[in-house]
Amino acid sequence: MCFELDSAPPIPVISGAAVSHDDLVLEARDGNRFAAFLATPEKSSEKGVVVLPDVRGLYRFYEELALRFAERGYTALALDYFGRTAGVERRDDDFDCWPHVEAVTPEQIQADVAAAVEHLRSLGVRSVFTVGFCMGGRQSWLAAAGGHCLAGAVGFYGRPGLAQDGAPGPEQLAPQMEAPILALQAGDDANITAEANEAFERALAGAGVEHQLAVYDGAPHSFFDRKQEEFADASEDAWKRVLAFLDRHA
Questions:
Q1: pLDDT, position 235
Q2: DSSP 192
Q3: How far is residue 58's CA from residue 82's CA, in Å, rounded to a whole number?
Q4: Alpha-carbon gap, residue 181 to 139, rounded angstroms
Q5: Average pLDDT for residues 167-188, to the nearest whole number?
Q6: Cβ atoms of 220 and 1 closer than 8 Å
Q7: Is 0.90 surpassed by the pTM of this model?
Q8: Helices then strands, each counted (H, E), the chain
Q9: Dihedral (Cα; 153, 159, 160, 163), 10-degree rounding
């Protein structure tokens, strides 16, 4: 599991920022209906973010993250992965995500991403980014190769290599990527080695994909959390990199 249920994004709230939010149900091209959370700034924006959660799917951490983006002028839509197997209703804290993680496919997730991107564009967003964490970090990078015409793809501690079933990962699909990549990796991640990060960076460079890959030495998986006070500097730097990346490519 990535974040605990009481975790929160380590991002300052902008006091007085006028932001609205809505719970949505969107429909993908395969007919899947899935839950989403939309946060919008006071003034309509041509910049937008699709937020891709960790293995738990849509919950409070990512709703708060969407609000933090909206406070900074980005229309943000956080989506859920499990509409096909868990429905669109809100879930309690006892939700067992793992059967749903095992059931959903990358192709299905990308169909949901396409619906999220389309919804943002229907609101006047012209530059759309994906920002994901853990499972969502991997899916964010895969979205850069998904034909969504993204402005950029950001991933925190995503696995870049082959899936356990041998399906290609972001490293293998680098030649198909059509958007710049920002990778923010944890140096003390038991499941993502330095060699895996190096291989990903080589693949991106070899494919001519504009990219940045930062590794935070000593930081664990899921360091981007207000509760992880000892890694506050890493979180602050990562957030600055995210905002700079979005501002540069919007």
A1: 98
A2: S
A3: 9
A4: 12
A5: 98
A6: no
A7: yes
A8: 7, 8
A9: -120
pLDDT tier for residue 2 given thresholds of 50, 70 and 90: confident
**Cα–Cα distance, 101 to 31 (Å, whole number):** 19
What's the whole-number average pLDDT of the chain? 96
Phi, psi of 42 (to 5 degrees): -60, -45
One-letter amino acid at 244 equals A
| Strand partners of residue 4 | none
Q: Looking up tokens 């599991």, which residue turns up?
A: 1
Cβ neighbours of residue 70 closer than 8 Å, sequence gap 6 or more: 17, 19, 21, 39, 40, 41, 76
Residue 1 — pLDDT band, cuts 50, 70, 90? low
Q: What is the pLDDT of residue 16?
A: 77
* Alpha-carbon distance values, 78 to 42, 154, 168, 186, 208 (Å): 18, 14, 25, 23, 29
Residues 63-70, mean pLDDT to the nearest whole number: 97
- The one-letter amino acid code at 143 reads A
Number of residues that make up the chain = 250
Cβ-proximal residues to 239 (8 Å cutoff; 6+ apart), any chain: 10, 11, 224
For residue 125, the one-letter residue type is V
The pLDDT value given to residue 4: 73
Per-residue exposure over 120-159, b if at least 16 CB sit within 10 Å of its own CB, e if not = beeeebebbbbbbbbbbbbbbbbbbbbebebbbbbbbbbb
The Cα–Cα gap between 151 and 178 comes to: 9
C-alpha dist (Å) from residue 20 to 99, 131, 172, 235: 33, 20, 39, 26
Q: Given this model, what pLDDT does residue 164 score?
A: 85
